[in-house]
Each structure stands twice: as C-alpha cells, then as structure tokens.
C-alpha cells in the first residue's frame, strides 16, 4: 500500500495530516503513535512549503518478517540544506522551537535519514514500527 500527495501550499498539509492519520489508524497504530507520525509528516511537509517551494510526500505501509510499520518519504527539488550537520547536532539544546523541527522528527520516529544536495533538493525518509502500545484497541 503506497500513496503519494503533492506539497506546495499550506493547505496541502491539512490533507496530508488527515490522510496519514487515517492510514496510521487503519494500520493499528495507537493514538500516541498516530500523533507522532502526523506531527512528523506535518513538520517535513511544512519545511517543503517554507524552505523549498514544492515537493511530494509518499506514504507506505511496510511489512517485514516480524514487524510492520509505516514509511514516509518527503522530497523536494529546492535548495537543499548546506549546514545540515550543524542543524542535526543533538548536543545543542534548542534555544527556541524554531530550528528544532528536524531534530524533533528524528526523536519522534524510529528511523530517520536525510539527504540534501545543494541546489538539487532534500530527501527525508522516516519510519515508525508498531510496538506493544499499538493494536490495543483494534482487532
Ligand atoms: N526541505 C528543505 N529544503 C531546504 N532547506 C530546509 C528544508 N528543511 C529544512 N531546511 C533548512 O533546515 C533548517 C532547519 O529546519 P527545521 O529543523 O525544520 O527548523 P525550521 O523549519 O523551524 O527552521 C531550516 O531553517 C532550513 O534552513
Ligand atoms: Mg521546520
């Protein structure tokens, strides 16, 4: 199961949030994990709107032998990020909420990888695996 949505305008984020929550819910994620996933995709999509003009988000339900989860890829063809290492350095605690988005996404999800090529764009892939808190309220 794979779905993809365009990101260009602020209101695209509204659709993306709604659709991703629905998928995560149907897949059996707990409310708390749904919130983490939605917050993450929302932050990544908002980075595209604010820092890169336009892009796409691809959402996929993933299955492995003994676990299942959700993978979200957000990509754009914007300017890339030249000081990425500095932005992601965890030792610096956030002075404000601003500039904390990517680090927060890394904290919220189980897997996080980012590639940014100057002048070419940014590619972020994040995944969340279901854990014992999930599937409690669904059969
Ligand atoms: N998709 C993107 N394209 C270009 N630059 C980006 C992108 N995402 C993030 N950035 C750069 O990385 C910085 C940190 O991003 P983030 O942690 O989300 O903080 P914020 O968006 O609040 O500035 C941004 O200020 C921006 O310079
Ligand atoms: Mg941001």
From TrEMBL:
Pfam families: HATPase_c_2. InterPro entries: Anti-sigma-factor_SerPK (IPR050267), HATPase_C_sf (IPR036890), HATPase_dom (IPR003594). One of its GO terms (molecular function) is protein serine/threonine kinase activity. Signal peptide: none annotated. Keywords: Kinase, Serine/threonine-protein kinase, Transferase. CDD domains: HATPase_RsbT-like. Residues 32-132 form the Histidine kinase/HSP90-like ATPase domain. SMART domains: HATPase_c. This is Serine/threonine-protein kinase RsbT. It comes from Marininema mesophilum.
